Amino acid sequence: MAWRQILFSNRRLISAPSNLSVPTGFASFSSKSSPYIVKVGIPEFLNGVGKGVETHVEKLESEIGDFSKLLVTRTLKLKKLGIPCKHRKLILKYTHKYRLGLWRPRAEPVKA
């Protein structure tokens, strides 16, 4: 029923004179996220995750080096670096969310 209403309303809009400004009724959505204000590196990312993961900053910076490489790092590489299971899970969870644009670290760290 809803599809019929959408199709019929679109036919009326198409047959309307072009000199009238008639809204189409469809919202424009964008899949691109807004650009980040703060440059995110490995230390900012791990501090944003929190929960003890920030203790591995030096190890990850020396072995992985770049934040873009951290985003595609797999669990076996993190395991070889000696990162505990719970921290590996958190790092992988938040890198996935970051890649999808669902999460980003705060500009200022939250004070406890």
From TrEMBL:
Transmembrane segments: none annotated. Residues 42-101 form the Small ribosomal subunit protein mS41 SAM domain. InterPro entries: SAM_Ribosomal_mS41. It comes from the Eukaryota. This is Small ribosomal subunit protein mS41 SAM domain-containing protein.
